[in-house]
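TEACHING EXERCISE
Course module: macromolecular assemblies
Task: Read the component lines below, then compare them to the predicted structure of the full complex.
Student: A.B.
Group: 4
Components provided:
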Amino acid sequence: MLGRRHGPPLPAALGAFGSVIAGALAGCEPSPADAREAQIVAVLAAADEPYIRARPALSAGKYTRMAQGLFDFYRGTVPLFRSDMRTGSTTLAVSRFDLDVPLVPSIGDPHPENFGALRALDGTLAIEPNDFDTADLAPYLWDVRRLAVGLALAALTSNPDDAEARRNVVDARRAIVRSAVVGYRASVEAAARGEAPVRVTESTNPILASVIRRSERDHARRRELTELTVLDGDRRALRRGPIDPEDPQRVYADLPPFALAALPEAIERWRRTLVAPPPPEHVRLLDAARVFGSGVASWPRARVILLVRGPSDDPDDDLLLELKELGDSMIGGLLPPGVHRDNVGERVVRSARLAWARPDAEPFWGWTTWLGLPCQIRLESEGHKGVRAARMEGEEGTADALTKLGVVLGGVVARVHASGPGGAENARAIYARIATDPEGFLDEQADVGVAYAELVVADHARFARALRRPDGLRLGIPFDRNDSARPDVAAVLGVPPAPPPLPSSP
Amino acid sequence: MIRLSLASALALFVFVLGARAAAAADDGNAPSSATRLAGDAGPEPPVTAATEPTQPAAEATQPAAEPVPRTAEPAPRPTAEDGAPIGHAAPPTEAATHGAGPVRAGLEVFAQYSYRNLVGPGNNQTWFHAFDVPRAHAALEGELDGARGRVVLEATRSASEGSLLGVAGDSLVLRIREAYGAYRVVAPLELSAGVIPTLTVPNLDGTWMLRPVAPSALEASGLMSAADLGAKARVDLPRGFGWLAAAAYNGDGYTNRELNRGKTFEGAAEVHPLPNGALRPLGVFGSYVAGSTGTSLARADRVTGGLVWQGSRVRGGAYFTHAWGVAQLGTQRAMLASAFVRVEPVPRLLLGARADHTIRDSAVSPTGAFTTVLGSVGYRVALPVETFLALSRSIPTARAQSEVPGSNAWELRAIVRVVF
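Instructor-supplied answer key:
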């Protein structure tokens, strides 16, 4: 900061020491004029530094994806949300209803796209949280506000091809956000009274009804086998190359032999963590491929699609599983001891089982290690549809549809906060805070959600601008050849497709 | 441009003053560095208790923040009753600063048990207790012919808080805390480079001399680091008037890699206006940091000023810091005020107290601020062993508590420090 490219010549009397100082100060560049842009870049760079250094191509793919869509940008910026919440740089954390003790089980990133249909061990379908990469213990307002902002953004991005419909939804965004808080408050109050948690198995809401309907349809068709595999005689194998004509970034590629050879042990470790472990032969590995172009925040992580035998040798009952490398939650470390699980996989999966209305809501969701990497494995199924902001149009894009969605998701988040040992006490502590001004609680969260969503919109433009700067896709992290991944790690990570050009404007 | 000019001017000032001080020392027939290292007296040292009849003679053997030339007389054997160094700070890391000989090895360990009670709104409470090793240093230092080298290894958790990914779980591992070479160009001027102690935090820590009880508020708040990668020049003013120093660093502290091409400059001075009388411990301290951090060159400037009292049995100080830029946000304005005292009313009994007030951003409303008060009682069991009981209370404003969960807390700690 101090340095400038053209400084005054230092007096010769400084001699050697002066040279040291001058050299140290030389070569500095001015920071971006927009302090917020600088903060966004610096916060994300600090959070992603290991990935940018060791997996630059994958990180570049992630940032390009974030630049392409507002909602994807929000999904990829949990570290920025944390910075805004914790450093005092915004008023995001300011609340008359905050409660830092006790921490509660937190989904971590409960935006609408992290909810969807999951099929339980008994075959029944329910709407549940379906991403726990960020799950940890946190103050309850973290999830409430993350959801509130997510719903406001969903309103802003709804009806992409119908300006009038979008305007109606945008005008109603405060009410939509408020509805989620209403759902949250009602569910917390019920939990505080000791009522049993609710499992959402059906809905009159068009968005959730569509999720359930399409999940049932594609589950019956085993659509994932049709789309992601090829059948050669009586033997099934995974496809290779691009798998989605509309998204050239989604590619399946071969794994190196040593990585493939390590998978059976990883699968066995995973099998033993399941709620109801299937027999080993049911999950015997038939094929595996490296997956590129999936997720947003987790885009640079190793991801593998696994084809396993299923209950019989009949290729029609083969199963697809997804193995994904896990990382730290990014929201932990608040109260001592700072970590609350023994390992990363356990953090994710135990958080999931607490969050769900029943622990076997997705019976194939477990954890393992693969080549030393902490990983989760879950079922890959077209019968597990998720809520998608991009689908919020037509009857799924009305203010009423989003309002009802908010009520349900708010209720699910409250159920998570009241789960596990001490859940009822947590619910009572939260409700005691809310009860000091129940209507004020709704208004405060609605106002914060709407206001922060507007900041996210502006931040998205700043981020896209920053990516176009020199070293933008590295977020300014200097290149160092010593950072390159070891050959074996590089082989596992693979070579992703080149990212598309950055959008000229978001 | 103004900041660069200020940096250059301070660097020039330090250099010229060093040359003048050297000339003054030569005029006084001070020996060369070679003769000093052969066992003769160096340039006129700061007045120490050894030459002051009102103080115990053994005080001269206490280490100072930067090495002072040894006297011709053999140092008296240090005892547990010795007082603190008068008129200057203790070293930021003390391992291997004791003893004699051209090469010294040492260690410093803080071991503690802490009980922390966290208070949330609505009288919700929780607690946690743990054994910990806040500091474990192993050091090696050598000096010859005006050159000096020092390496300090320190133990740290391999993963940060909230992280499950570390080395072998979250083991205690060793990293470099200090690693530098230094050369005394002329008697009062020493240049050093490597992983070096910074100027402000070590001086405040070394003034209070209760680092086992708590790091300085500047370090605890994350506004400054105790060490960084860079180069430093320090001049000891003649006749115990104090010192001045200038340094340039990467700016991201010794725990992080450099992320930008900007460098951080720190200039600091401590002046003892009355070095020959009873007010010799009184000093005026000031420093200015012009810095940057992170990939976006976020501004990280700090100005610090205060008074210190570096006595043998009573030590204390009060200072104020204004920070432009905090962490990755260059526009944030933080302020910190701290007052501290350490009293040894009878030899071996160490009483400490401190109060800190930190405003996280002075430009926003409502204000997010913390007030922390701390008291400690300690006893020097033997020369290398000190024990402490410390009680602290942190009180945040409502906004600060919302932003920093767990900040409303009190903590009781039992601490043992061993240093060689």
